[in-house]
């Protein structure tokens, strides 16, 4: 948290783990999955494909009474609750590794309510909590701070702040409406109402079209395909391409051309131009 607050070039995704809920560790770190498989004695699926690493999947459940899992739960919350600039912090669960993204409402309740954190800590490993600072943290996020973490800051970080993450002029009409009135709710005390509201949007508007109403999907749409186009000198781009092509011939049986996707192959493409200092 100190490094995050001191260095304006550091960004952080929360990667919050969800105790007591099923998760799936999914990584290209095959040795880690091998160890985790023997620790959990659960199932393990791994695939050795023609890439630099071997992908693997191991089912996992973060246990509330586990010393290690309690530390993992506390770390994400502590860093975020101690952060001064939420425009560089993003709410995530490292889906599916820390927990499914459908549990974002739980994470929101822990950030907005000290009471919610305390009630969960009563079920967590007590020895582990003594090593954490979260029991002493009384900060409770406002609804505005949650909006920054879940909408505005990710849009800004991705270079989409002109069209995403706000309701101003020029923004896409991407709007989620929740059945909750902040004027009549004490988010700190009534955290269950927060969880209930955020779990099921009353209405979702995507690019100006209503796709969810009364919590039910009423329409499906195909959005845009965003891609980045960095400003790279032609000679440098050509040099990089030739080196990659040579490496593929040396280490792969698949040609580099198999990985290239042309613009005409994209449905509803949207370019994000990126300026660089490359010369």
Structure description:
By secondary structure, this protein is α+β, with helices and mostly antiparallel strands. The chain has 2 domains: 176 residues, no CATH class; 50 residues, no CATH class. The strands form 4 sheets. The protein has a 4-stranded antiparallel sheet with strand order 6-7-8-9, with no helix packed on it. Helix 4 packs across helix 5 and helix 4 packs antiparallel against helix 8.
Would you summarize the structure shown here?
It contains nine helices and eleven strands.
List strands and helices in order, with pairings.
Elements: H1 2-6, E1 12-13, E2 22-27, H2 30-40, E3 45-47, E4 55-61, H3 67-81, E5 89-90, H4 104-112, H5 114-121, H6 126-129, H7 143-157, E6 175-177, H8 191-199, E7 203-206, E8 209-213, E9 216-217, E10 225-230, H9 234-251, E11 269-274
Parallel strand pairs: 1-5, 10-11
Antiparallel strand pairs: 2-4, 3-4, 6-7, 7-8, 8-9
In quaternary terms, these chains amount to: single chain
Q: Strand fraction band?
A: 15-25%
User: What would you call the structural class?
Assistant: alpha+beta
Mean pLDDT: 92
The helix-strand sequence is HEEHEEHEHHHHEHEEEEHE
Tally the helices: what do you get?
A: 9
Strands ordered across the widest β-sheet: 6-7-8-9
What's the story with the biggest beta sheet? 4 strands, antiparallel
| Radius of gyration based on Cα positions | 22 Å
Terminal CA distance:
35 Å
- Helix % is 25-40%
Into how many domains do the coordinates divide?
2
Spatial shape: globular
Count all strands and give the number: 11
In the predicted model, the low-confidence regions spanning at least 5 consecutive residues are: none
